[in-house]
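Response to reviewer comment R2.3. The reviewers asked that we include at least one raw input/output pair. We reproduce the pair for Glutamine-dependent NAD(+) synthetase here without editing.
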Amino acid sequence: MSDDRLGIALAQLNPCVGDIDGNLALLRDARRQAADAGADILVATELVITGYPPEDLVQKPAFLDKAEAGVQALAADTADGGPAVILGAPWRENPETRKRDGHLYNAALVLDGGDVRAVRAKWDLPNYGVFDEKRLFTPGELPGPVELRGARLGLPICEDIWSEDVAECLQENGAEALIAINGSPFESGKPDKRLQLALQRIAECEIPLVYLNQVGGQDELVFDGASFVLDAGRNLRVQLPAFEPAVATTWWTRDRLGDLAVADGVRTDLPDGHAAIYRALVLGLRDYVDKNGFPGVVLGLSGGIDSAISAVVAADALGSERVRCVLLPSPFTSQHSLEDAAELAELLGCALETVDIGPAMQAFDQMLKPLFDDLPTGIAEENIQARSRGVALMAISNKFGPMVLSTGNKSEMSVGYSTLYGDMCGGFNAIKDVYKTQVYALARWRNQHLPHGSFGPAGRVIPERVITKAPSAELAPDQKDADSLPGYDQLDDILACLIESDMAAKEIAARGHEPDTVAKVWKLLEGAEYKRRQAPPGVKITARNLSRDRRYPIVNKFRG
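Raw output as returned:
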C-alpha cells in the first residue's frame, strides 16, 4: 500500500471465447485505465484471457499454449512498475513440459514485476446445469491468501464462494479481503442471490468481499456483470452496472485496528424484473451476432406477438438498419396480420419485404399428390407452409448474409408447437427461454420503456392489436392456439413446475390443474425432446433452459 492507501481497479470486461489476442487487448486497455487512475492492482474475471466458458477448447494444447503466451505477455507488461494484475486463466501444472497428461487448473494468477508471482487454483469445480468443469479441470487445494502490494488477499474463484470452506480457509490463514473473480451467468433473480451469498460469507469471515463478474453474451449464456464490493460490516460500497463493461477503481485504507476498509465508490442502480430480462435478451443476441461476424439478422414477421418481440429485441440489439423483416403470406394469412406486421416494421424503421409462399405450397401439392392422393389435408400440409417459409428465409440468409432469427417461445418449444425445419430453422432464438405469458409482459413493458443501451426507437413499437388478439399459427382456416393447447396462463404454470422444479403430476394437480391436462402437457413435453435437440441456441434467462440445463433422453417412456 502506497501512502497508506491501496487502489484496486475492477475490470468488468466482455471477452470473446477463443479471441486471446482480443482479450489481451481488453486487459491492456483496462490496465492503462487503472494506471491513469493511480490504482495499484487491476483485477479481471474468471478465465478472462480465453473467454468464459471455453469448454473443450482447453483440451487443445495449442489453445493452452496461446493462452499462456498471452498471460506471459501481460506479465511482462507489469515490469513497468504500474498496476499488478489478478486475472483468471487456464493453467497447466508444468506448462514448460507441454504434456497432455498434466493437471490443468482453472486458476487465478497474480502478475507483478514482469512475472507470474502466484497461482491459486479453483477448489470447487461446478458440475451441474450449464457447468461441466470437473471433466475439464483438476480441482486445486484449499488456498491460502497472496501477499500483494502490502495486503493479504484471498482469491476464491466463482463457485468457491458458494460454500463456506474456501472463504473460511482464506480468513483463517490471514486473508484481509476476499477478491472473488467470477463467470456467473444471468438468470432472473440471480443478482440478489449473489448478494445474499456474499453477505453470508462476510457474516462468517468478517472481512470485505469484492465480487467481480464477467459481462457479455456467449452462445446461450449471458453474463450480466453487476459486480459489487461489500465492506466487513456488510455495507454495499461499490456497485458496477449490469449488462455493460466497466472499469472502476476502489480505494482501500487501514482503519484504527489495522484492518482493510473500502471507501464508497460508484453505485449504479441495477435493472430488475422485466427490465433485467429484456436487457439480457438484447445483450445475448447482440453478442451472438457480432462475435460471430454476421452483418445482421433476417426474420419472418407473422403479425403475431413472438415475431414482433423478436424483431424489437433485434432492433434494440443491432439497430433497425441491421434487421430485415419479411412477410411470408399464405392463403390462410389474415389481412390484419399483414397490417400488424407492416405497422410494426414501420414503427421500428426496419426494412420489410414480401415473399408469397402460395406458389411453393402449390408446387408441393403437385409433387406430393401421387402419394397423398385424396387423403384429407392436415398437419403435413400445415407444416409444408412453415417449411416453405424456412426455405425462403434461409435463401435470403445465404444470398445476402444476415443470420435467420428464429422466433419460437419457451412454451411452444416445450410442447413441440413448432415445425422442425420450418419456424424452428435459424441461427439463434432470442426468446427461446421466455414463456408465452412473459412474452406478452415484455411486449407491454417495452412499449413503455426504452432500455439503456438500446439502438431501437423510443415509444410504442408493438401495435396494440398484436398484444390483444388471440394467438394463432394461421396454418389452417380460423386456427387458434387455444384449439389444441390449454390457456397460456395454465400451460406456463404447468411447464414451469415440470421444467424448473421437476414436480410430480400429483403436486402440479394440487395447484389447481386438472390431472388430465397435466398428463397431456407432460406427454407433449417429453415427446418434443427430439425437436428441441435440433433447435437453434437461444438466450438463457431462467434457472433451467431447454438445452444444457435439462438433459433428458429422446427415447423415454417414463411419465409421472
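The two ends are 61 Å apart (CA to CA). Residues 101 and 191 are 38 Å apart (CA to CA). Further pairs are available on request from the corresponding author.
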